[in-house]
Amino acid sequence: MIKWLWNSQFAMFACVGAVGFVVDYVVFYSLSLYVSYVHVVRIVAFGVACLVTWWLNARFTFKQNNTSVKIVTLPTYFLAQSLGMLINFSTFSTLLFLIKVNETSIFISFIVGSLVAMLFNFFFAKHIAFKKVIKNDHLF
Asked: Which residues lie in coiled coils (predicted)?
């Protein structure tokens, strides 16, 4: 079971997501040192992370080696990630509304929003954005 999970698209998607999370948070944190509008900073950081994860998912998770095929997937991938960002952003904002805002609560809200959106993003990427190139990997 563990070997199957490690070799699955979901595991690769999660690893790419971890890279995206780091990129997202580093950009978010770095910009937030200079810009006080955390929600605007959050959107900019998301855009940067989305480009990074699109390339990594196209190349490694869903094994698209043809550059033209990868580029065709970009609009659909961005749509999926944007919907996921709405889920992420809503979770992030709701948690900040419900709990006292401080450095720790912002980070926790950031993590929870990212995890909730990850499940949606994987399903959408697998079954819609990269559907044509998927091999037999039956997580969902």
From this structure: none
